[in-house]
Design goal:
Largest sheet: none
Distance between the termini: 64 Å
Mean pLDDT: 89
Number of helices: 3
Structural class: mainly alpha
Shape: elongated
């Protein structure tokens, strides 16, 4: 039972880290591509949000399983770190979505003149 909680905790940590890293990586990679613009990095927003949710679900599962078992070990701290990274990943995805929405709004207003 504790091994399941430990695996879920580590999965949460990895999913949270990738959730935080996917948008900056997508923006960075557009600098080296002639075919993709900065707006194309917006396709990574749902990926970041989905991985953030996965990190939160796995962290909750890990915390439930380690609270049941006596020898939780460091899985509880790992799950907390995964939860924090999942929340940060969701915040990064939300801020990117707001930035994309503001850009599109300003483009629409600017083109209607």
């Amino acid at each position: 039972m504790a091994a399941d909680g430990s695996r879920a905790a580590w999965g949460s940590l990895v999913a949270g880290f990738v959730s935080v890293a996917v948008l900056p990586a997508a923006v960075y990679l557009t600098r080296f591509s002639g075919r993709y613009d900065l707006l194309h990095a917006g396709f990574a927003i749902p990926v970041a949000a989905a991985l953030g949710v996965v990190a939160l679900v796995l962290a909750r599962r890990a915390q439930r399983r380690t609270s049941i078992s006596i020898s939780g070990g460091g899985a509880g701290r790992t799950a907390v770190a995964g939860r924090v990274l999942g929340i940060v990943g969701l915040c990064v995805a939300a801020s990117a979505l707001v930035a994309l929405g503001v850009y599109e709004l300003l483009s629409y207003v600017g083109s209607s003149d």
